[in-house]
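Course assignment 3, question 2. Fill in each field.
Student: A.L.
Task: Predict the tertiary structure for the chain below.
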Amino acid sequence: MEAGAPTLALATVPTLLSFEFIQTTTSFAESATSATPVHFESASWLSLLLQHLPSWQPTFMHGFILGQVSMLILLFMAIKYILFEEPFSKRDVAGDEAPFMIFSRKPKEQPPSDLAEELAKMHKEILARTGYDLLNRGPETCDWLTVFLAQIIAKFRTDAERHDRLVRVISEALNGELRPSIIDNIRITQFSLGSDFLRIVSARMVPSSGSLGMRTELDLALHDEITLGFDTRVLVNWPRTTVAALPVSMVVSLVKFVGTVVVEFDCDSLEPALRISILPDYVLEFDVQTLIGSKAKVQNLPMLTSVIIRKLEAAFAKELVKPNEKHIKI
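Answer field:
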């Protein structure tokens, strides 16, 4: 019984505290009802409340904890003010879209007068910084460029001999959409890139009426045999489809080209390009061999040969000879 006495005393402490709190609350209510009519002043309520509250003496530990909590609150407010921003601010609604619209806007085209002035300034700056005399400078030899191109051509020739990739590309082009309906499938029988190399005799910059006011002229010379041979059939489709077929074998060789190639940089539009053409005073020679027939064969008809050569020359002039030109976008 003596050992259980402390335990019983500790168990009765919450009951005594609850009884004291209830008694204090009851006395506060009785005094509030028995007092004179309330005058709703904060001073009277505060004095009445302080009379019935138990006395409380702060300790050192209470002050230490309160100081630490105050420091944490100030630190949080400082970090939020310096590093963070409101999730929905006015800048998000009105100002954030402005920088991104710069990248989505289309570039404005310059007026023709401004563009002409800019190109003229560019023309003068290029000649001044490179020290090139556009009017008095003579043609220059380009032996180094001839050797460089010869290396590329030699590589193509080696690949053409070992593999048939280039032959397949040419065969697909000949049998594509451009092939007329009266021509049967075309089968390549001979292909050669020759044995000699293209020579760049001279090069020069000359004035022009283009955007930058100058162009490059290259004098080229080729004496070789670049050969393409093929077999096909000419179909007779009247009075019905494929009534008869005429076998045709042909070998076309480019044996000579001498002319001036013009290369000019075009920057008038938003998409710069190279304009490539050939001056009209060029020399182009083909050699055409034909074999027509099945059982009885006719070889190298002069009329047919001349027609084929004229067609090749007309197609070449239509594509490259001035005023026609090729545009290569950069």
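Instructor remarks: The chain has a mean pLDDT of 76. Residues 69 and 239 are 106 Å apart (CA to CA).
Grade: pending
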